Input
Amino acid sequence: MVWCQADCSTTLLTVPRLGIPYFTQGKAGGGRSGGFHHVPVLLGEVIHYLAPRAGMTVLDATLGGAGHAAAILERGARLIGFDRDPEALAHAATCLSQYGGAFESRRTNFSDLLAVGREIVPGGVEGILLDLGVSSHQLDSAARGFSLKSEGPLDMRMDPDESPTAAELVNEWEEQDLARIFRDLGEERRAKAVARAIVRRRVAKPFSDTLDLANFVAGVVGRGGRIHPATRVFQALRMTVNRELESLEAALEAAPALLKPGGRVAVITFHSLEDRIVKRFFKSHSAPEIDRPEWPAARPNPDCCLRVLTRRPVGAEGSELRNNPRARSAKLRVAEKLEENEA
Output
């Protein structure tokens, strides 16, 4: 089975614990000189929990390389795809054209999930997928400004029409603001030192390309360990530029209202902050009662509308980790909307 025309060879793998066959698109790891490289993570697990089939409508709110979308469509479901990256949407239009009217897409941020979703499917959907972070193509494409190892403009925008760029943050933000995001979003232990050094250096020479910044940060942090020393700083800049945590919180708040009773929302995170937000949201919306020390007794939880299906987050293992090392930090959490008589 071929999902698209350019660089879309597929490899059949199996999720050992579930026995579900699935396909990876292209080859894992490495850069690409052309085409759109993408390896969907936890694909078998997503299919297992969302269980797409004919008659269902699934909203892939982070379409990306369309790997999850293709597998969902292959099982007969209708799929609506959201993405703010025009390259991703163009790629998906080519790859998924064989499915005709079963697939449609919108260029929008997943934070607009409810408004745009209701516009397309007023009656709601049976499944929602949020696959956070950046795609392999975005990471490997120097021109997008995400890469630590290839020279490119210091951009990092998923939507090229939005602002600011990473260069604007690095060259214009106050030292304390840079230190805050490096610490809070990047979990960089030397956040203050990196921010101070950046502010001093930009006076003489502003930062404009990725390698310049990556090498400079490495000189401040020091080299060592298995990840690039500028990884955490780049992560913080990317998450700030694209307002990733704010978008996630907005999408989670919207998801229950768009789901039909019995419908499921699946969220794949790659960062502890993202996973913490999802865990907290699922917990607060699945507890039948809430209690406070000053109350004489617990009270019904007005936000209770979900049943958590993954007691612990599901991670990649076995052949998937061997074929796609980037899956090592992925965590999947899934919740199901309660039936009306259960809420």
Observations:
- The two ends are 42 Å apart (CA to CA).
- The domain at 163-241 is CATH 1.10.150.170 (DNA polymerase; domain 1).
- Residues 1-34 have pLDDT under 50 and may be disordered.
- The chain has two domains: 10-137+244-337, 163-241.
